[in-house]
Amino acid sequence: MSPVVKNNFDDLTLFLNENKYDQIFVLVDQNTKLHCYSLIEQIVPNALLIEVEAGEKSKQINTCFQVWEQLSLHLASRHALLINLGGGMISDLGGFVASTYKRGIDFINIPTSLLAMVDASIGGKTGIDFQGIKNMIGLIVQPKLILTNPIFLKTLAPRQIRSGYAEMLKHGMIADRKYLQALMTVNIEEIEDWAFLIQKSIDIKKRIVDQDPTEQGLRKILNFGHSIGHALESCFLEDTADELFHGEAVAWGMVVESFLSTKVLGFQLNDFSQFYNFIQKNYSAVKLSTVDVNKVFVLLQQDKKNTGSLINFVLLQEIGKAQFDISCNEDLIKDALKTLYQFNQ
Ligand SMILES: NC(=O)c1ccc[n+]([C@@H]2O[C@H](COP(=O)([O-])OP(=O)(O)OC[C@H]3O[C@@H](n4cnc5c(N)ncnc54)[C@H](O)[C@@H]3O)[C@@H](O)[C@H]2O)c1
Ligand SMILES: [Zn+2]
Fold first, then answer.
1. Which of ligand 1's atoms lies nearest the C-alpha of 95?
2. In this predicted model, what pLDDT tens digit does every residue of 187-211 receive, in sequence order?
3. What is the extent of the structural domain holding 183?
């Protein structure tokens, strides 16, 4: 069971008083050190800081070496604690490093990006990218505490906010029409009360993960938008001039996959159009050439969600009703991608 998400910094003090750790380490990147660490430092003044470079390129084995080395240099015992203070890169990396150091020390997540608050910090998936493949190496281990406070969003770039927002839209699409409507009727830049919306997303993700922690079935629905999304992400990975954030790729992935849903599961065209309009208004267009369409298709064939030669998707019957392991054929997928391309002209 994933831990209950706490919101108050007093809960951190309480947790640390209840658990007498030998040593406390805080893992940060340069941005979270600059913008977020001072709040935690007040609560844990004697913690040892471990800093890694910001960005997805740090989510790899060499960075693990650096962090393990720091833990070892400071003689971290099995009763040390690692606090992951950052976005999803930090919680994925830190969770993996902690779970493997001396066969596992405790870690907690204090997410500082919207994406980490509503998604990456919950559910226990930890790990690193390997040989160009995302999240290739890793474990599912639950943090001892998740402390989510929207105060950190004040310094997060608007584009990062929108990236995280896509995962919230995903939660609405797969689980809750009313929540989706609430998300689509606000102006993202003007949101003041983040706590309510974030909590709703956390509840949806937790409810799904707790029913299927190791992703044997139901948890797969959280991958809605991600089959196409990951393929788009990989496609753009080589293109340094035109970086695509994870949530942006997922946003367009959801557009393509809801289009597929209209063809395969009778998803309402009206709902598709409304969703598509919202994405088009809030996310920059993804430009795909015919060559890219073929490239995306090849990447899709490598997706670990596939069984044999079939390409599996999470598709929607209606908003709030997702089905997993729905296979689609090559023509249908290419048509859907070409439609996305035309949409984005
Ligand atoms: N484990 C899971 O279930 C899960 C789920 C979704 C995504 N992920 C992973 O999460 C990662 C993406 O997460 P992300 O979008 O948070 O990326 P990230 O951790 O790289 O953070 C994005 C950027 O924002 C900066 N940042 C973070 N918090 C900030 C703040 N409060 N103020 C200013 N800058 C801040 C970071 O330094 C970084 O430059 C990917 O590696 C993805 O695979 C994991
Ligand atoms: Zn995602």
1. 1
2. 999 998 999 999 999 999 999 999 9
3. 158-343
